[in-house]
Amino acid sequence: MSSVSPIPTVVPTLPDIQKASETGTRTLWVVFVIMVISSLAFYAMAFRVPVQKRLFHILTAFITTFAAISYFAMAMGDGISFSHNTETESHKHVPDTTVDVYRQVYWARYVDWSVTTPLLLMDLAFLAGLSGANILVAVVADLIMILTGLFAAFGGNESAQWGYYAMACLAYLVVIYQLAVHGRAMAMSKDSKTGTFFQAIGAFTLVLWTAYPIVWGIADGSRNINVDAEIISYAVLDVLAKPVFGFWLLFTHDAMPETSVSLEGFWAHGLGKEGSLRVGDDDEGA
């Protein structure tokens, strides 16, 4: 009686569910508290100056306010969905198998970025004295960058994901061009102090913003780090790009009259009084 070798079999692979643990959730709560405290500090700083000179304060406070709402939503388990990708595993003696990968995507983060990054760009644009046309181009490119990043996170296959990712990177290059070329030129034309400060805080911002797509590439893109590591990475970047940026901007702005932007007319007096909208240095200084 001849023996028959067993037929190789393939055990069905269970779906790979990638989601945050308690570490990730605690990180979200910590950043929420940081954003709330920063927002309160920025609003308090705004009340210390005349309403005509609160532009930077209001924009910066709005940035951390929206970020606080976003982090509260994510910490509470809201603003979250799952992306689905299928990965193929090769085997030597049996047919290839596939694994369904379901990874948490915090879409509330993209809603946050779609509001806060244009506000941050406006901070830098008003500091430099960019024209309305340049500001519009930078803000639209920024929104394209965020939206295509969101589409990439939910892309059904790798081709779609990296295609959207490439679009986001191209849009980001437009933002860099507006700030590094037009913004720097306008800031340097105002005075040396403003130019030097804009170069410093602008470079700080662009370095941080360049790190975001890198994190996306190794997290949502290639899934080489877990969701907790993704949360922590974005948390560090968000704290640096929003509260730290805000305190640096406002403290320097308050101490440097050259950066003063004074808005009269409707901004300061409403529709009840006649006035003109003026953006620029106050006649009387700081």
Largest sheet features = 3 strands, mixed
What's the helical proportion of residues?
Answer: 55-70%
Can you give the mean pLDDT?
85
Treating each run of at least 4 consecutive H or I residues as one helix, how many helices?
8
Distance between the termini: 102 Å
Q: Care to describe what's here?
A:
- Helix content is 65%, strand content 7%.
- The protein has 286 residues and is mainly alpha-helical.
- A three-stranded mixed β-sheet has the order 1-3-2, with no helix packed on it.
- A hairpin with a 7-residue loop joins strand 2 and strand 3.
- Helix 1 packs parallel to helix 7 and helix 4 packs antiparallel against helix 5.
- The mean pLDDT is 85.
What's the short story on this structure?
This protein has 286 residues and is mainly α.
What characteristics describe this protein?
8 helices; mainly alpha; 3 strands; 286 residues; three-stranded mixed β-sheet
Please render the helix and strand layout as text.
Elements: E1 16-18, H1 22-46, H2 55-75, E2 81-89, E3 97-105, H3 107-128, H4 132-153, H5 158-190, H6 192-221, H7 227-255, H8 266-269
